[in-house]
Amino acid sequence: MGRFDIQAEADLHIAVLHVQRNKRLAESFGTTEIAMLATVASELGRNILKYGDAKGYLLVTWIDDMPSYGNGVEIKAIDRGPGFIDKQSALCDHYSTSGTLGLGLPGVARIMDALEIESELGEGAVVTATMWVHQRDRKH
Amino acid sequence: MGDRHFVITRLNQTMVATLEGAVDAGELGDLVDSLSEAQARQNVNSVVLDVSACEVMDLDEFAELQRAVRTAEWLGLRCVVAGFKPGIVAYIVSTGVELGTLRTALDLELALGELSADCDEREPEQQPEPEQDAESGLEPDSFGSL
Lengths: 140, 146
Fold this sequence. Notes:
- The structure holds two protein chains of two kinds.
- By secondary structure, chain A is an alpha+beta fold.
- Chain A has five helices and five strands; from the N terminus they run E-H-H-H-E-E-H-H-E-E.
- Chain B has a five-stranded mixed sheet.
- Chain B has a single domain, classed as Transcription Regulator spoIIAA, CATH 3.30.750.
């Protein structure tokens, strides 16, 4: 669906708009889910700006007919920043290395069906969030 | 970038700030400056932040909005946020963010109604003057004291 280089706030808005207006997503997800996907893109993209030295990109990919899961969308945030100090803690509420609320990643984990972090200190990070169509476990 | 993403209009003693699209900390700071100027010059005592044009709001943006609301309230302005989209609410509620004392309304009209109701509660009701009995010259209430 698209790759969006994230180097400034304006790039985030472009990525968010693309997610909001993507026809494939609109056919498969409701308006609230689309808004949440767009917000997830914004959260992960903003993390690239804040923690990834603004050297990264978002990759939004449609997943076609994954066995056991069906169709879905994957939002991947890739950056070449310093990487995560503590991946496990990053998924805990109120953990923040920058004085913020610390609810961004845990919030994304609650909303999406899957969230994965791959990172080595000093070698950037890849954060992958996935939402499946129609097979979402309604947590809320 | 240079483009402002909010428009301010005035309705009686209420400023209505319509946020357009995404807003960032700098712009919300400008907004609060505009509101405090308006409060000083134009006898404004309340503000509605109309976010009905905001389709998406991540937690950073929401935190900035909360900060702007708190600042406005500390300046003495009553503040209502109107028009949160369902997707934004669903996201924010799902993340577990504390909403605190944020006052919200479904739309601008309801927000203005709520602020107007606040004013009505604050102004003491005018007590009707007691009617005098034309024949006796006594006020009806005087019997109550016997």
